[in-house]
Every structure is written in structure tokens, then in C-alpha cells.
Amino acid sequence: MYLALLTKKTKMTSMEKRLQKELQAMTKDPPAGVSVNTNSLSSNLSEWVVDIEGAPGTLYESERFQLGFKFTSRYPFDSPQVMFLGPNIPVHPHIYSNGHICLSILTEDWSPALSVQSVCLSIVSMLSSCKEKKLPPDNALYVRTCSKDPKKTRWWYHDNSV
Amino acid sequence: MAAQAHAIDYDPERNYDEDTLAQQREIEKEIAESQPLISSLFTFDDIVEEYTREDEVYRHKIENLKTRYANLRKTRGDGNCFFRAFGFGYLETLLSNPTDYQRFLEICEKSKDELIALGFPQFTLEDFYDTFIDIVKQVKNPGQLEKLLETFNDQGLSDYFVVYLRLLVSGFLQKNEDDYIPFIDGERTVKQFCSQEVEPMGKESDHIHAVALTKALRVPICVEYMDREGQTCNSFMFDPTESPEESSPKPALTLLYRPGHYDILYPL
């Protein structure tokens, strides 16, 4: 399915080339609990939906979530915009009820050597290490006042324990 | 007064993040439009007024530099200037040094597998390596200076090159973790330091980045520090062989440091 999408254009931008490589790797050898929803891909690969499943033995065991990825033409130099989508947003101290995620690699600590796969693994691991399902303390104010784009938030990363 | 007025206007129910970030992007855009990634050659007379506007003490220091250096190239202040200055400056010297070119190429070619062995993901690493090594190979033939300057001013190619140098520094620090952990500030592991301060683009380089890069590629460099203290620049030699001072090798290139920024110097 996605291969048909990809071969349509003859000349790809460097963002598309890179994402195509990532997509192949993720489809061929997906990390545990992570799968790309290939029906969701836009034709130039600038938007993806990735299904993730809470790891066994954690608070989120067998819960299913959807992560939305958006890439600009400057990817991988610009970080992707990543947020939870749909009706089931994990209740977690670093995840706001509108799907925005407070994770440093999504903004300040993003590096072009990271990838969709490494972002998904960090998010799965963030869920797995959670000890108590609760919303971020400033959830109400943040959700009321924030931009629609989580990359337009100046995140404060102060707690690495969960 | 201004601070007070600001305090009165401040609305705690409003989110200012978007405005602040938009302002930061605007500043970055202005820098990008006004400064090439790597400039053509300047003389000290060309830049003395500009540098002196920051601080009058630089006037004396530039006079001092003129006794030892003929020219300089400016680099864009985008947080990657150390890596870009090193990359361009060193490749430029290789244009007229085929022996060093061969040595450097071999080190570079070995580095990819070493980084993969350290756990860097192969498919992202390969992308950066392929572009990096293509750029290195550009200097195999002499007389390619214009081409090299063009390459380093092509944001895409230039940034790919910078990423790979950042990964080399990260790999070197992680491989020699025990030696470098005492120099890492904050309660961080070497790996955390690398993912926060080395691998992301735009994170400025410190002493530790320079030590690691010169050792990873075995390229001795000299840095002239033009800070606000004293009347002359202090030079510091990054010598990857750690030979005793009297026998330390001739630097392959010299960089000029002003607080937060690196440019390239050319000896008389």
C-alpha cells in the first residue's frame, strides 16, 4: 500500500527520502508495541499515525493509543510535531489531556539522528515507568491557554523520574 | 520603570509561549539572512570596527592578532559555528596536503562502523555519513576551494556535515566515558550529556566538545581566545597526541574564539 504511494513521485525531497527509509525500517522490523498505521500516511509522508500499545506489566498494559506525527520539509533538522490523538489519551503526569506531550527530545533535545522509531520508544518507555496515573498539575490552565501546536510551547523539563 | 509597566500588563491567564518562540525564530531568521554559513576572506581592518562595537578591548587584541595572522573567515552564529569552522577550515588545509588527506579519509571511513557498534541507529547514521564522506572526498583534488565554499554554504549539505561531526564527538565521549564523566556538570551521565548538549543541532560547543572532536579525528587545532580580559589573546592548543608541550605538533588550523562564537584564522 505505502510502496505504491512512494513510487508515485520520481523526485523526492530529502525529507521524503529520509522518511521513506524510516517507514521501511518501521514496517519491516517494528519495535514491540509500535506499529505504523499505513492507511494514515499522506502522499508526501508529512503526516503519520502510529498505533502504540501499553507494555505488559505496566499501568497501561494492553491499552491502545494513537500518536500523530507531522513533519516539515526541514525534517530531520526540524523535530516532528508529535501528539496523542483520538478518544484515548493516556493519563500521565507528562501528557496533557489535549494530547500534548512534555518530552525534551520533541523540542530542545531533538537531534537529526533521532527518528520516528526512537521517539516512539521514548514515549512507550515514559508510559512504562509511570507509577501513578494522574494528569500534569497544570493541566487545566495549559489546555485552556496553549497553542494547538505543541511545538509552540516553551516546555520546562524538570522531572526525569517518570 | 519598564519592568513595572510590563508587570502590570502581564496576564497570568494568557500563554505567552507562542509570541516568545516567534520572536526567537525571527532573530534566527535575521541572523541567517545577514551572515553566510562560511564567509569569504576578511582582513582585520575589515572587521575591527564591528568587533570593537561589542567591546573596546577587542581593538588591542585585534592589533595583537595582526602580528600573527593575515586573514579570517566569519561563520554564522547559529550554535554550530565550532563544528562548521572546524570542518571547513580543516578540509581547506587538506586541499594542499594529500598525505594528511589520505590519513584523514581512513579515520573517517573507519568511524561509521565504530559509531554503529556504539549503538547509533544504522539507518539515520548512514545518511549523515554518506553526505559527510562525499564532502571529505571533494578535497582530494586541489583547486576545489570555490566548490568547498559553495558546499559549506549550502545549508542542507553543510548541516549534514555538522551532524556527523556532532555524532563523532558523542561517540568519542561515550567510548571514553570514564575519562570524561568528571567534566560533566549536573547530575548527568555522559550519554545524557551527549543527547542534550552534543547531538542536537545549535547547541554551542564548549572545551569538552573541542577536546573530543580533535581527539576523535586526531587533528591538532589552536584556539585564540579573544575574551574581555587582558590586552592580548590567549592561545590554547588542542593536541590529540598529548605530547609534551615543547614537542607539540603544529596546529592544522586555528580558530578565533569570542565569547560564544568561533571564526577561522589564517596565519601570516
Automatic annotation (TrEMBL), chain A:
GO terms for biological process: protein ubiquitination. It is an enzyme of class 2 (transferase). One of its GO terms (molecular function) is ubiquitin conjugating enzyme activity. SUPFAM superfamilies: UBC-like. Its EC number is 2.3.2.23, 2.3.2.25. It comes from the Eukaryota. Keywords: Transferase, Ubl conjugation pathway. The keyword Iron does not apply. This is N-terminal E2 ubiquitin-conjugating enzyme. It comes from Lymnaea stagnalis (Great pond snail).
From TrEMBL, chain B:
GO terms for molecular function: cysteine-type deubiquitinase activity; ubiquitin binding. The active site is at residues 78, 81, 261. The record marks 225, 227, 257, 262 as: Interacts with free ubiquitin. One of its GO terms (biological process) is protein K48-linked deubiquitination. Residues 70-268 form the OTU domain. InterPro entries: OTU_dom, Otubain, Papain-like_cys_pep_sf, Peptidase_C65_otubain, Peptidase_C65_otubain_sub1, Peptidase_C65_otubain_sub2. This is Ubiquitin thioesterase. It comes from Lymnaea stagnalis. The lineage of its organism: Eukaryota, Metazoa, Spiralia, Lophotrochozoa, Mollusca.
